[in-house]
Each structure stands twice: as C-alpha cells, then as structure tokens.
C-alpha cells in the first residue's frame, strides 16, 4: 500500500457482541507457547555488562506487568492515581510505553515469552468492538497521540513479529486507529514527533499512511532548531531546553528517524545526524562519573530515559567526535542504568515502577504522570535492537573522558554553566521556564543550581519555608515568613565572561533579572567554581525597589540528607564530627551524605543570619529526609540591597554508607571572595 490522505471515521455505536482476535470475544489465549519461561534476576543483582545482561534487565521490567494486564492484553493498570486525561488513556500508556524496550529486544533477535500479550493487546486495543479493551479514538491534543509513538516505532523496527501474523481485519483496525491522528490538533511541541512515528510505522509495514502530513510535521519541527545541535521544545519565544530537547523526545526521535528514513529522506536524516554530533559534545556534561544525570525540568520520573540519547546514538550507528568513542557512549548509558539499579525504592513490592525519582514521590510529579508513565524509560533499551557485532557491544566500556573535556562548560542555548570541579557535577541555570502552568515549575526550572548528586527539592505546600523547601533559591516574603515567592521567569538571562581574579583567563558568568513584584527587580550573577575553590560557587544579587515595600529574604544552598546515619535521628547541632552549624553569616550541614552550606560575603550592612532548616519530608528527589542551610535577611522600604553569597557543596556517600567525608573542614574554610572584576560587573565598584 502507498501513502494516502483520507479521514478515518470511527464506526457508529454497535450492539453486536465484542469481537476481536477469536472472532466473537476478547481473545486471551496465546498463539504459541514456549516450553520454559526465561526468569530474570532482579535489576539490583544484574551486573549490566553485556547485551544478554541488558536483555535480562528489560525482562525484569516487563515480567511484573503481566499481573496488571487486562484479559485481552490492551490495557495495563498499575495504580489508582489519576491524571488530567482519562483512565483508558492512562491504561493505554501502561501498555504502549514498555514497547520501546520490547520492540528493541525482538528487533535485535531477542525473545520474550510475554510478547504475545502485546500482540493481542495491539489487535484488541484498536478494535472498536473489543469491549473493555478498545482504547477509543483520538481527539484534539489527546494523550492517545503520545502512545502512538512507541506503537509506530514498534511496527517500524519489529513488524516481522508484531504485524505480519495479524489477520487482515486486525491490520485494518490498527491502521485506522493510527491514521485517526492525522487531522487532529496537536500541541505545538515535541508531540508532533508522535504523529511522525505513527505514520512512519504504518509506512514500514506497508499499510496506508499520510506522507504529506509526515513531511509537514517534520518541516515544522525543524523550526524549533536553534543551532549547535540544540532544539527548543516549542515555537519561538519558548525557552525550554530540558531532556525533551534531548533524550526524552527531539534528539532521540531525530536519530531514530535518521536510521529508519535514511533511504527515503537522506538529506534530512544526515542533517539530524550532524545535529546529534554537535549536541553530544554538550550533552555529555550532564552526567557524572557514577552514571547520574543532572535532574532538571519536567518528567524526570522517566528516570533512565534521561540517558536514552546515548542509546539512540548507538541505534543510529552514529560515530561521534572525539573524545566520545563507542566505549564512552556505552559507559554513560550502562552506568546510568546501574545507578537506578541501586535504588530499590523505584519499584513497588511487585516489581512495577513507581512514580517518583529515587523513591516514590507524588509532590514531584506532573499532572500527566500516570502509574504507567515511568515506562518511557524503556527508551534507554534501544541498543538491544543492534547485533552483538555492533561497535557499541564490541567496544569495552570506558569512563567519562574528563581530562579531554573542559571542567567548566558554558552552554549558551540552554543558558547553563556546567561544573565538574570538587567531585561534583552540577549546572548553574537561569532563563528557562515551562510555557504552561506546570506543578512546581519554579523548582524545576527557576533554581540557581541543579546537581546530579544532591538533586533538587519541590514544594510540599505553600506555608512557611519548610514546605516551600527552596534549596538553591532566593526566596522573598512580605507577610513575615508565611508565604514565600521564588523565581520562575528570568527573561533577560545570558552568559557573559569577566577576567579571573589573577587576570590570566576569562571566567563565564550567568546574569539574569527577576521581578518578584512590579516595583522590585533582583539582578543576579552566578559564578562557577574555580580550581582554587573547587567546592564553592558564588551568587551576587542586587535588589532594587522603587516602592515602599519591605520584605524578608532567605537564600539557600543545596539540600542534603538530614539524618545522623542512614536510619538515624535528625542532625544535631554540630558535635565535632557532623551536625548543623548556624551562626551569623554562615550555615552548614554535615551528614554522612556530605556537606553543604552558605557563607555571607555581603557588605556589612547586609549581614544575614544562618539557619539549617528541616525541609518537609519527601520534598527532595534523592533523599526523603533533608535539611537546607539558609541565610536570612531583610530588605527595607525602597532600599537597594546587595548580597554576595558563597555556596559550598562536598558530596559524600549518597547511600550514607561509611563515615562523614574527609576534607570538608579544609574545603569549608577555603572561602572564595568577590574580586574586583566581579564587583565591577555587579555595579558595586
């Protein structure tokens, strides 16, 4: 069959009995059986070294889904929490997202005993007569559109297994259901890629598809491109370059498309490959030596999908510029999955994924995160589609090439400065924001810094600082400290350079403005660590008020695990080994997880008091009990106030195994200062 442009209309109401794969009722029996079911080790016991290990790891994700699957295989219900879209779409999400992994597994020659469940589900879910199984027809901006993407991908790479043995009526139903997307309104974002893959999958199995719609969507998606490999997630005016611009959607989709459409769309495919080569040299900086990615932005409950770009590089057979060899690419992806394997609380007791990050956390998630949403992480398993002779599998795993990459890297498009100094990978950030009312949007885009080790915190409520939990933020309150404002928009953010303290090199800085009230402007300069002060970054704030407004300020460091031991009591006052230091002009917390703190470098008239706050439980992504060092100050009627803050961070052991990290005292005492060029740029000299 060739491409067509026809509107598929859903059948009218039916009174006949539900009819699916058996002809008159929902089919629940498999077409074929195997003599022995392959048992997968728990992820925590898997060494994750070889292709066979990764296959087994995927199976350990897929097996627990069987108990939650509907009789006809089309719906997977993993929990009772709701989303802004309907329950049927949520259960479709549970069915479709694991296909990112399953399709890759079988495309690469692997076998899975549960494959028949998904084949049955695909037929039943697209059959309007399948009562209790049919997914329903798409409407404008429908969640069903999102889940068409893994289905289209699966048909494209694994059609020999998932499509060829279907009955003609079943194939027609699948075609009708996927084609129904083509005349519907979609969000002007990465969602357009989902329609691309719906049509691409149909084309690959020889069904009807809409070639004109596919081309129009690709042409529009290309308008998101900014340069140097980066695309924003939306039209002009949207500065949102989180993981959707990379691993979750755009870069990932471009690479997959570049392989699947290399013969039919060679020019665009090569353009996408060149973008990925450039993007990789920036994106590598978002990962640390242990495999952690820096959590930033929305949807990070997709977990290992944060590293899926590197799997897509392998799938697309893309050689990257030095020093990003195949061994480096393999190492980034495998270490990331291993890091998640160390966190058993990402799973429920029956082995299904939870909504959250390092543990279940509903404060942190979006209103579009259903219990099936985290299975978008199965995108990371796409290298399973490759033969073992591929250089991704044949190359030995290598560490990050730190000696060949800069330790400080300014990234102009996302408005980030990345630092790898002080055994710590983090970004300084200003200027990004989500273009719609996202839950905890200030926390996900508006903080000054985001760390692969310390994570970040989100509000649990709107009353007092402990509920706001505003780590790495400057918070303002004009009601005595009940309600606090934190930064969301910083539209004038940009990266500049100034001479270093010794004048021998240029230092990147990130400048921005924030307007918490119409008559108040906060100008901020963020300065990355230096080799002389590797565990410190600087923040300079000039707060200008044109009215008669007085308010309190609270400026925080990173959050950190706040107990004496892994299962101990809340940190005490400093006891000579660990605890809290709360003094005029400084605050520090030392725990088995490391040490974080703030030191006030402001002019004497602006001296602030230090405090270590008990943040609300479950506010942080990494640890469920944290403390946050703060500096408290006050801005009085119409005054211009200048704050200079040095922020200290020294990682220890995330799992709080062993002693408090050595060397924190020397690092804490080695406080940087505000040198002349920096003070001049701030307008203070």
From TrEMBL:
Superkingdom assignment: Eukaryota
InterPro entries: DUF2264_C, DUF2264_N, UCP014753
Residue segments, region Disordered: 1-49
Listed Low complexity bias regions: 9-23
Any Pfam family matching the protein: DUF2264
Domain DUF2264: 50-399, 407-678
Sequence ranges of Basic residues compositional bias: 31-40
Alphabetical list of PANTHER family matching this protein: LINALOOL DEHYDRATASE_ISOMERASE DOMAIN-CONTAINING PROTEIN
Annotated protein name in UniProt: Uncharacterized protein
Source organism of this protein record: Ascobolus immersus RN42
